[in-house]
Amino acid sequence: MNMAETKIKEDKVCIVGSGLIGRSFAMLFAASGYQVHLYDIQSSQVTDALSNIRSQLLDLERKGLLRGTLTVDQQHNCIQGATDLGKAIKGAWFVLECVPERLELKTSVYKNIEPFLEPTAILASSASALVPSLLSKDIKNRNRFIVVHPTNPPFYAPAVELIPAPWTDADVLTSTKNLCTEIGQVPVVLNKEIDGFVLNRIQYAIIGECWNIVKDGVMSPEDVDKVMSEGLGRRYAFMGPLETAYLNADGWLSYQERYAGMMDRVSSSFAPFPKIEGPTLQKIHDAFLEKIPIDQLDERRKWRDERLARLSKLKKDMDS
Ligand SMILES: NC(=O)c1ccc[n+]([C@@H]2O[C@H](COP(=O)([O-])OP(=O)(O)OC[C@H]3O[C@@H](n4cnc5c(N)ncnc54)[C@H](O)[C@@H]3O)[C@@H](O)[C@H]2O)c1
Question: Distance, CA 103 to ligand 1 centroid (Å)?
């Protein structure tokens, strides 16, 4: 987001589900001046979200990391809690569903939303893996449907996967892409549906290999994580694995000459994706439990989010 003055807009967006993802998106929209209506089936979740958002905004302000130019109060005032779904949806041009990842739950929520949707409104889902053709097949205006899969936490990790269904109108993708860019996200587009999308497919490939390495006793869980946080991940925060390889030789053709044989040999010893269960599960869980007791998860999430926010600032400063 550039530091041009942020204007408070009249455009209304609605978020259905005010959990981890819903509240983070509410902050993103509000930082760009959108009128956000935040609905949840549990009103206590909405109350909790509003107070959590205020304390996050105050914290960001203290650290000089607030987005855009609106004050904490202005951003917070852009978000209204809602307990009436119809009122929350009516007049919204963009509706983002953020309820738990269960197909039957999401489709039943769409049934409740549909009667109140403006005919041209975009209905988006923050689904992590459920493909849009499955989610939207029974929606009347299914041509207005798209999946907007964020990286958690969306406020601090901007990549967002956009996955249109085969029947999604082209302008839905364009408008969603523009909206995501406007609120400071970095949209990437899937040209066709695939189970788990791209982010989770890559993430699971990494987790699978980490798991097998721990299972085979090659390395401790803590050290495997350091390979990412102090090694590969340091580069990946700035460039992906494809560009990394490009730079590690003199371009991909030279990388192929030097390393393709080694890649073939090493990858032929990869075990299939492991079952996430048994003694390895306990071993990995215990390793982290020692470092982060379950009642200290929130503290550790804050620690993570602060570093992610500072990394975003560093990237922005270096790129400007
Ligand atoms: N948490 C993540 O790491 C992550 C990352 C990317 C995408 N997602 C996806 O985002 C979606 C939401 O995940 P989350 O982590 O925010 O879940 P969450 O459990 O934190 O929040 C879900 C919210 O939905 C509400 N809800 C449940 N049923 C509802 C209904 N019928 N109507 C309205 N609200 C309802 C719940 O009360 C809760 O507040 C899921 O599809 C998830 O897969 C999650």
Answer: 12
Per-residue pLDDT reduced to its tens digit, 6-17 = 999 999 999 999
Closest CA to 185 of 8, 29, 7, 19: 29
Residue count of the chain, please give it: 320
Lowest-confidence range among 17-31, 117-131, 196-210, 300-314? 300-314
Domains of the chain plus CATH, in order, are 12-189 (3.40.50.720), 199-319 (1.10.1040.10)
CB 124 within 8 A of CB 97: yes
Q: Which residues line ligand 1 (CB under 6 A)?
A: 16-22, 40-42, 45, 98-101, 109, 126-128, 149-150, 152
User: Is residue 277 within 8 Å of 283, Cβ to Cβ?
Assistant: no
Q: Report the separation in Å between the CA atom of 97 and the middle of ligand 1, taken as the mean of its atom positions.
A: 8
User: Residue 145's beta-bridge partner residues?
Assistant: 123
